[in-house]
């Protein structure tokens, strides 16, 4: 069992002085999965990510990442992860390509230019490769930031609120980048306050509330926690997001908002 899990967290506790933020957090993330940790402001999501990425020590409990213990094998953990924080950590003066080449050089990888070009292509930044990052939009920076964190192919990637502050179109672009990661076999743990982000992206969703994981499951499992949907006939009004995306032409590959606007099926008439 344990070897199939990229992240394993048991009984994690953390307080800041008298503030008990984590009160026994348990969850596991399968290899190659996208796991969303949901919670309100201050729920402790960043605290969990910091503990898993060895930036912070837990008060109690254990956590392993890629088979290594975050407390006793921190160096091994650091070698197998990347962390993308909420604010893009890219150099404004350099071009997108130069940023990537720089990181590949710092990691002593062979052929930094080729690594940069591959990532630019993967994250749809080839056309902007030679431009200074200062001229990039928020979504482009975020994509570049995620691309930079992938240099060296870490098997586990932490994304702390990857789309906070982005417009709907840029969010969809980042979602595509995250899906791309999982398709390459990378395990992704992301935190978000956006329910629709978790709904669109994650294989499993956990809700952190008052220091504990109160639910953890697939979207279908979470939906089954509520009574079955009532069948009602309503006129479907487009959401503001539908209007925005229709007007600005978001969701180029058509997989955003695919099936969430349909009214309940009309078969069921008991
Ligand atoms: N270094 C610190 N010292 C004291 N309190 C802290 C520290 N870091 C976080 N906290 C507090 O711990 C709680 C959890 O913070 P954390 O940043 O983990 O929440 P979060 O779920 O990431 O919130 P957000 O959605 O706003 O990013 C908050 O009440 C926060 O104020
Ligand atoms: Mg946070």
UniProtKB/TrEMBL annotation:
The annotated region (Disordered) lies at 250-270
Q: Which UniProt keywords apply?
A: Antibiotic resistance, ATP-binding, Cell membrane, Membrane, Nucleotide-binding, Translocase, Transport
Listed under GO biological process in this entry are: response to antibiotic
Please give the PROSITE patterns that the UniProt record associates with this protein: ABC_TRANSPORTER_1, ABC_TRANSPORTER_2
Membrane topology term: Peripheral membrane protein
Where does this polypeptide localize? Cell membrane
Q: Which Pfam family is an annotated match for this chain, by its short name? A: ABC_tran
Tell me what this protein is called: ABC-2 type transport system ATP-binding protein
């Amino acid at each position: 069992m344990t070897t199939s899990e990229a992240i394993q967290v048991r009984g994690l506790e953390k307080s800041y002085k008298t503030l008990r933020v984590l009160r026994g957090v348990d969850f596991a993330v399968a290899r190659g999965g996208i796991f969303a940790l949901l919670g309100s402001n201050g729920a402790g999501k960043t605290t969990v990510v910091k503990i898993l990425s060895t930036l912070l020590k837990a008060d109690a409990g254990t956590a392993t990442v890629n088979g290594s213990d975050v407390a006793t094998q921190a160096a091994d953990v650091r070698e197998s992860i990347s962390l993308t924080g909420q604010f893009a950590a890219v150099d404004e003066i350099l071009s997108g390509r130069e940023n990537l080449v720089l990181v590949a050089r710092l990691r002593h990888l062979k052929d930094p230019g080729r690594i940069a070009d591959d990532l630019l292509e993967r994250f749809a930044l080839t056309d902007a490769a030679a431009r200074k990052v200062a001229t990039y939009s928020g979504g482009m920076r975020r994509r570049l930031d995620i691309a930079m964190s992938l240099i060296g192919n870490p098997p586990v990637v932490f994304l702390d609120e990857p789309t906070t502050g982005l417009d709907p179109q840029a969010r969809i672009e980042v979602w595509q980048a995250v899906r791309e990661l999982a398709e390459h076999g990378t395990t992704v743990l992301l935190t978000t306050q956006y329910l629709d982000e978790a709904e669109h992206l994650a294989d499993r969703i956990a809700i952190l509330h008052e220091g504990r994981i109160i639910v953890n499951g697939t979207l279908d499992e979470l939906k089954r926690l509520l009574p079955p949907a009532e069948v009602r006939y309503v006129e479907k009004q487009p959401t503001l997001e539908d209007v925005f995306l229709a007007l600005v032409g978001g969701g180029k590959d058509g997989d955003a908002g695919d099936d969430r606007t349909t009214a309940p099926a009309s078969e069921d008439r008991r």
